[in-house]
Structure formats: C-alpha cells, structure tokens
Design brief:
The chain is mainly beta. It has 3 helices and 21 strands. It has helices spanning 26-37, 304-317, 338-351; strands at 2-5, 8-11, 58-61, 70-74, 82-89, 101-106, 117-120, 130-136, 143-151, 156-165, 175-180, 188-194, 200-205, 213-216, 218-220, 245-251, 259-266, 275-278, 290-293, 323-327, 355-359. Residues 174-278 form the Purple acid phosphatase N-terminal domain.
Length: 367
Amino acid sequence: MLRDHGAKYTLVADDDAPTETMGTHRRLAKRMAVLVAVALCGVAAAVTLLIALKRDVVLTPLSEESKGFKLKTYPPLVEDGGDLVVSWEGEASSTLTSRDYLTLSCGPTTGDGDYLMKKGVKETDANDHSVRFSELYMMRCNYTAVYFNYDEKTDKFKPIAKVEAGMKEPFDTPKHGHLSLTDDETAMAILFNSGSSKTPMVKYGENPQDLKFHATGTTTTYGADDLCHEPANVLGQRAFRDPGFMHTVIMTDLKPDTYYYYQYGHEGHALSHVRRFKSRPPKSTKYANFIAYADMGAYVEPGSASTAGRVYEEVMGGGYDSFLLHFGDISYARSVGYIWDQFFHLIEPYATRLYVHLDVNVEDYEC
C-alpha cells in the first residue's frame, strides 16, 4: 500500500504492524561496501558518530551573555525522512539581525563552516522566529542546530545558541534494506545498514504470523583511509561520513516462485517491519516482467522521488515483480556521503520486495 506525502511515499508493511522489538558468505557482505566505497568512493561517511542511544534534546547557550536566548525544536525527536523546525526565544546579548542564520549538522564537525544545511532567518520558508529544515534522514547521529548572529562592529558571525535533537528511532534500527541474489538458486540475501556491529539476523517463512526459519549473517564497514583520494576521503558533514555498518544475511532453502515474509535486524534490538518477497522462478521459466532505468539520483535530483513512487506502484500492482535493473548513474553522491542515506531511504520500499541489480556507470566513479 502506498501512502502519498507530497513528493514522498511511504511503505506500509505487509502486516501493517511496526515492530520495535528490543530485543553465508563473506563475499556478499563485502558487496554492499564495495558498491558504495569503491564504485562511488565518496559514498558516505566517517567522522566517528554517536552510536549510543542518546535521543534527548539539549538546549545550550554558547556564552554567559546570551544565556537568556535559547533554541527549541519541533518535533523534539526527528523522524526518518521528516522535518525539523527550529525556533528561538529570549534576549540575546547582541541585537539580532536580518543577516543571522542557522546551521544544521549531524554528528561531529570540523568547525563552524562545516554543516549539512544553512538557513537564513529571513528565507522564504522561515517566519519571524523559526526556520524549517526538511527531509532529514537517519544517519546514526543526533542533529544539532546553531544560531549565528551577525556583529556589525566586527563584520563577523558568531554562534550564540545551539540545540540538539535526537532521532525518534534508535541508531541500531535496520535501514537501507535491499535484496540481493546469491550463487545459490534457492537463496536470497537481505543487506541492510545500522549503527550497530552486533550480529545481524533474519526471521522468515511463508506465513507472516509464523516466521519459523532463522539465519544470522556477517558485518562489514569501511573508513576514509579505505578510499582513494580527495574528495572521496575528506572528512566533513557534506563529505565523507561514518557509514555505519553494512550487514548481510542469507535466507536459504527457499521454494521456487514462492512468496516469503521476513523480518531483519539485530536480535534483542529494533527489527524491521515484516516484508515480503518472491523467490526465484524455476530454471524452466523463459519470461520475466522487470523494470529498468538509470540516472535516478536521490531527493536532491529532480524527479527521483517521482520515479521511485512509480516503480513502487508497478512492483506492487503492475506485475513487474521479477527484478529491477538500475543500469548506472545511481545516486549522484559525488563524494557527498549523506546522499547515500537519502538514496537507500528512497529505494527501500521496493528494494525489500524484489531483487535490485545496481550496475556501476561512469558517473558513479570518484577514483
């Protein structure tokens, strides 16, 4: 079922029940990291981020003189793919100006000029006392907004207040789920990302109420030193970021051309919704209905969300449920790590339902 939210779309799980349970092949485990790290050197992520489940909001004045001036966030916890409104109140030690601005970052920064987003207090989507940051994704870190005040005497900007907002979900929540074929025709691999290095697992079966089979898998990651050269290995909010951990778990002994339900994550921690996929057809099958496209990009690229929405509709109701071929020009991350979090968020609703083959093209190389 597809729920439309403007330019976005949301997957409703097969069991319509969110699960917040707190709860084999090394080569395939590397495949996800190689696709992201080698083929797109700049793919996401490695200043060390907060892995602990710190999700509370922290209000912090940046000087004694400005302790009466504070920032607040709404909502207090950020939903994956959601917006964050930052408002301010109280008296600052210096006069607020129309040139003031706010920055938003997630995780460690290299200085005041290192941020994900920047909003002026007089931008079109801002009102007199707040600004909105849109389409914020799970990147296994807390978001921090900083207010910069313009000082006419020095002709410089100085930070006078900040606020921190955590994620609504724990950092070990499984994200970026996508299916992959293996050399075994009776198997299917599920690959996903999280902020935890704990053993990944999957439960699966033909009945969504009885996921009687269980498998564990492998985990890998990579750092800036594993990439070739600048800009791919430069640390920064809009450069290389900690990618978290990539997990691979293989579901085996599958009957051909059969629907299976499955749920993945870390045992004893947050699990995914219950998903559904169809196993490979018999060898005698001669025809397949599939979708092929290229040049997609993530949310920053015009048309990417629309493409994803149409693909999802065709997979769900159009009969194109054999596989999907994405032949190159994948996310257009170009060494901007957080674009990969956006991209996998975008394709996850259908990439967890059918095998997606990602083919590397010239636009996907940074090295």
